[in-house]
Design brief:
With 208 residues, the chain is mainly β. It is 13% helix and 47% strand. A twelve-stranded mixed beta sheet has the order 9-10-11-12-13-3-4-5-6-7-8-14. The chain has a two-stranded antiparallel sheet with strand order 1-2.
Length: 208
């Protein structure tokens, strides 16, 4: 999950968002969407639907500043897999629900150069896209996206700022919800206090 989350996060940027095309409302009328200007300090919520040959699920991503919360709900070969990841103040916390039992893990990523480089791509998606070939466009949830391709990988990017769809040929993730300026409570991105988070060293010592 660590690698999956970091790889996907590297395609998302909180640098800004332009105008959304008018879309149909529930009563069939056109709705005018206002310009949305966000920056690295603007909180937002993105929800993605995940699908592969053996797995389906969703991922909710909440971002406020440099703090992130990911909620993943999936069904892998018929088994429910629920997990939550938090990134806060240089620490990564993971809560995994395995057969009704919750387990917490924590990792100091403040000095992890690879993690920091990938996390920084939240703010610099263009650097990642230089290895991809740009061609064609497609609308995702009302946003006109440019399509970038590298081998079997394809990324749908809105104005070089937000990844609304991604596929590696096996797994496809498509945005279904985008909420800029989401109202997130100060403690919403805090890891839960009722779970004991163990480090990798703690887990190694338990096995001795």
């Amino acid at each position: 999950m660590y690698l999956f989350a970091v790889v996907f996060l590297s395609f998302s940027l909180i640098a800004g968002c332009g105008k959304k095309d008018a879309t149909d409302s529930k009563d069939g009328k056109k709705e005018d969407k206002k310009d949305v200007a966000i920056n690295e300090n603007t909180p937002f919520h993105l929800k993605y639907e995940m699908a592969s040959d053996v797995e389906k699920g969703s991922m909710d991503m909440y971002v406020k500043g440099k703090n992130v919360k990911l909620e993943i709900k999936a069904k892998d070969k018929g088994q429910d897999v629920n997990s939550v990841m938090y990134v806060k103040e240089g620490m990564m916390y993971m809560v995994m629900d395995m057969m009704g039992q919750k387990m917490g893990m924590k990792m100091d990523v403040s000095k992890d150069e690879n993690f920091q480089k990938d996390f920084a791509k939240l703010y610099d998606v263009k650097d990642k896209l230089k290895d991809y070939k740009k061609g064609g466009s497609e609308e995702i949830i009302g946003y006109k996206c440019d399509v970038y391709t590298k081998g079997e990988e394809k990324i749908w990017i809105y104005q070089d700022k937000m990844a609304l769809k991604f596929t590696d040929g096996k797994m496809t993730m498509t945005a279904s919800v985008f909420e800029p300026n989401a109202k997130l409570a100060d403690d919403f991105l805090d890891p839960p206090k009722d779970i004991e988070f163990k480090s990798m060293d703690d887990l190694k010592n338990m096995g001795k």
